[in-house]
Specification:
Elements lengths: L11 E4 L3 E4 L3 E2 L15 H13 L4 E5 L8 H8 L7 E6 L18 H12 L4 E6 L8 H13 L3 E7 L3 H8 L4 E7 L8 H9 L3 E5 L9 H10 L3 H12 L12 H9 L7 H9 L2
Parallel strand pairs: 3-4, 4-5, 5-6, 6-7, 7-8, 8-9
Antiparallel strand pairs: 1-2
């Protein structure tokens, strides 16, 4: 299998009815320092990785000001801006970490208006195409958090709004306040606890972004068998399985290596049989 396949092979998906992107994106978390902390050890390689992804058809990039913090957006802007067909950015509203590998998945950002202004400046854009509110805060009414993001959308700083780490009930609450176009929840071959939310996304034409998509692949017999048949890596088969599992799925694998980026994107052209999709789903 060639690593020169492009993200276009995965087909396209619509965000909010007015943004169409290829259905395989790129996650910018790993173009930072070790432990998602500080600057990348090789700034040129970080730029090269982003440019390689965009050259291979990626037009949907996930970044967040917590990556570094405030690091991943800078090479993202440098790597993507000079290229034709500038990518749409999806930005996560994560809190700043306290240290390496300490991203807190339980608190939405403080002072979101100030943070969004900084994000726009670092990304060198006038509007964030999709802003993903990272997680409900148990200490703040969810409606209040969503309402703040809705105000930023009215001001034109955000084009579309998504939510993350939500139950079906929380998704419904957010939808009463703002037009939600996407959901990002944990989803992989060993954890499909968000299956009902994914099903809802399919029914309502919302985009579903799986996080932690590659987990315990070495234990999935069906996955290993498909990789052997196809001459593909386990990670490639997992990405192909996600794409085959649901038309709402938009994986955003990340890496700090141009070669690995090309390898991930090549998964867009992998075709699994129906039996293989079911075998991977069932783990056998």
């Amino acid at each position: 299998m060639s690593d020169q396949s492009t993200a276009a092979a995965a087909g396209t998906i619509d965000l909010g009815g007015d943004l169409t992107v290829n259905r395989l994106g790129f996650g910018a978390m790993r173009i930072t320092g070790q432990g998602i902390w500080g600057d990348p050890p090789d700034h040129g390689k970080a730029i090269e990785t982003l440019r390689r992804a965009v050259e291979l058809g990626v037009n949907f990039i996930d970044t967040a000001d917590s990556y570094g913090p405030e690091v991943s957006e800078k090479p993202d802007a440098e790597g993507a801006a000079p290229l034709p067909g500038r990518p749409r950015h999806r930005h996560q509203g994560r809190p700043h970490p306290a240290g390496p590998e300490s991203l807190d998945a339980r608190r939405p950002p403080r002072a979101p208006a100030q943070r969004v202004r900084g994000q726009l400046r670092r990304l060198r854009v006038e509007q964030i195409a999709l802003y993903q509110l990272h997680a409900p805060d148990p200490n703040v009414p969810y409606a209040e958090s969503v309402g703040t993001i809705a105000e930023l959308q009215k001001e034109g700083k955000i084009r579309h709004v998504g939510v993350s780490n939500v139950s079906e009930e929380q998704l419904r609450e957010a939808q009463r306040i703002v037009n939600v176009v996407s959901v990002q929840n944990r989803y992989n071959v060993t954890d499909r606890s968000s299956q009902q939310v994914l099903d809802l996304c399919e029914q309502e034409s919302l985009v579903f972004l799986p996080w932690a998509p590659i987990q315990q692949t070495e234990r999935n017999v069906g996955l290993l068998a498909a990789a052997r048949r196809l001459g593909a890596t386990e990670h490639q088969v997992v990405l192909a399985w996600l794409l085959a599992s649901s038309p709402a799925m938009l994986p955003i694998p990340g890496t700090g290596s141009p070669g690995h980026a090309a390898e991930n994107i090549a998964a867009a052209s992998i075709e699994l049989s129906g039996d293989e999709v079911r075998a991977i789903r069932d783990g056998g």
